[in-house]
Amino acid sequence: MSSRSSTSMAIGAMGAAVLGSSALQAFLAPSAPSAPSAPVLRGSGSQQTSGPAGRQGGHAMTVGLATAAVALARRRTVVRAEEKPFAGGLIGGESAFSGQDFNFDPLGLAVKCEKYLPWFREAELKHGRIAMLAFVGLVVPEFVRIPGPEQCYGAKTVVEAHNACAGDPYFPFVLDATDFYNKEGHQVGPLFQVFAFCGLVEMLTTFAKTSNVSNKPGLTLENAGDYRLGVNFLPKDEAKIKEMKLKELKNGRLAMLAFGGAITQATLTGNGFPWLYAQKDEERSVSSRSSFCNAGAVPGRGRVARRAEKGYKMSAAVPFLPMSPALEGIPGEEEGFDPMGFSLAIDIRWLREAELKHGRVAMLATVGWITTDLGLRVPGDAFQVSTIEAHDAMVKFGSMPQILVWLGYLELFGFLAIINMQEGKTDRKPGDFGLRGFYPADAKGQYDMQVKELRNGRLAMLAFSGIATVGVLTQEKWPFFDAVVNAVPRDAQQARRASSSRSMPFLPKPQNLGGLVGGEAEFDPLGFSDTFDVKWLRESELKHGRVCMLATIGFVAEQYVQFPGFPAAEDALQAIYVAPVNMTALLLVAAGYIESSSYGGKLTMLDMFEGEGAKRAPGDLNFGKRFLPSNKADADVLATKELNNGRLAMLAFSGMVHHNLVVKGPLFPLFPEGWEGPQGSWDLDSTAGALNSGRLGL
């Protein structure tokens, strides 16, 4: 009995040791390669056949634990020595702008599902490409339509067109087996053909690669997303190819977010691009907002349909957007600032309650931060810390949970007050908790006090965000700057000036503007020259400047002089609409020919200054060189004048265009007789509005 017990205990100990080794290995980083097997030590235990069984069990357990320890140590060594690249080295972890590695994978899929990495990249690229096309498809139909059935191609919006083209099946893309040939007219629309075609492409591409069927190669990290389309347009340099792939990937990610937001806004508003809530078309406005105008439970929503019948007024804060009707009568909202239209989708009372609460907390937080930075402290050793360290210190001290409980207690009463207010059981106003200590008695004083609190709260929210950010970045106390400027040594001051931009001394000096005409100002606050080819940037700047110099002359002259056979248009913005179509087409063809032939077809920053183009100076089109001075210094002066005049012309032309949009008339006189001020620069009577409404026949 004793011998059997000892033997069983030995076997159990060996099992526990082996199990313990496996368990320890299970907690190692799964991305690490499998550790090489440990030296064969089990023979030492099996060779000791002499002695009692209990001694054999002790040896077995000792050997098992030693094996686990050796394996674990060697595995850790291998992890350190052979650490795998993030996500198998896939492109996309690095940034296209600053060169930093983000390695964004919060769920750890690159480690947990490493074998599915090729499929993840294939799906990401495919969704990104589709989203880029889809976003363009959301905007283009508002300006250009292709001929087709009226129910699909004549719909007011893309969302309505989709519903019409889908045929409104009871489930997306489901065929009715009883009416397969659509004799009763209830079958799916033409989008089913697109769906079927996409399915065919999918079966012949990704499905074939993931399933290793036919003669298609298996899906790997190298061929994920590669359909061998457009490879002739890729650069020859490997670094440029990687850069191009990175741009496609990031543009696709951006397009997925953009399309998600755009289609949501289009569905909520029921309107076309730019998907604003207010439209002058009464029928569209009333019908598209039916979901927001029912039951009148929310103040402001029920007025949207009635407001649409009378037109709408523009926001004073954002004059190119309409004012939300839900803001009428709300203290502090006379300027109508709600560019995202939140007040039309969410109860304005709940929004105002949240805004006031955040503003009040931010006002207290701002005062608290500055006060503690100035030295005021609560008595006690635990509270003698800096403002930046205060939060973490109080969490460790245990006082933050108490504050959280008390705030939750107050929040509960506030929640009950809001619910009763929204249900109409009380006449409470948002943010009103019955505190009347310093509240004025007259109505005007109360209104002014509410507006002051609202604006101070908004300012405090911005202020506290800035204070916290600057405080952490500088590790300084309020007001976060060194008051002893003269204490900085003169050599350090000179070194700081040498490394700073001349035009913007609070920013670093651009490193890639040397040798360029006009680069002496060292003006590049956004760091474009660190990201893009500086020659291509200068080429683009000169071209836009030259075009704008001509455009400013033409913009002014259009009001007084016209070419023979061209109708007059006092407002230069209308000239393109009254000009003969054939001449407009000729101008576009000529501009396109000049653009292409000037660079031999090399138009992008990837190839414009490669090969023979590397010998050409930016802006040099081999035109008018005989008028240039022979002296290099004089030629540089002339080039600087052209550059500065071009920059001025770009600003001037932008101002001229905006002037005509605001006054809705010609450039001169600057203030037309009887002009009453801006009445909506971008409403439906403007150029952009004419494009959007389709009055121009587009």
Automatic annotation (TrEMBL):
Subcellular location as annotated: Plastid, Chloroplast
Amino-acid positions noted as binding chlorophyll b 1 in the UniProt annotation, renumbered to this chain: 129, 188, 219
Protein origin, superkingdom: Eukaryota
Matches recorded under SUPFAM superfamilies: Chlorophyll a-b binding protein
Record's keyword terms, sorted: Chlorophyll, Chloroplast, Chromophore, Photosynthesis, Plastid
Signal peptide: none
Chain residues that bind chlorophyll b 5: 265
GO molecular function, one term: chlorophyll binding
List of residues binding chlorophyll a: 124, 127, 247-248, 251, 253
GO biological process: photosynthesis, light harvesting
GO cellular component: chloroplast; membrane
Location of region: Disordered: 37-58
Keyword Transmembrane: no
Residue intervals passing through the bilayer: none
Name of the protein in question: Light-harvesting complex I LH38 protein
Organism listed in the record: Cladocopium goreaui
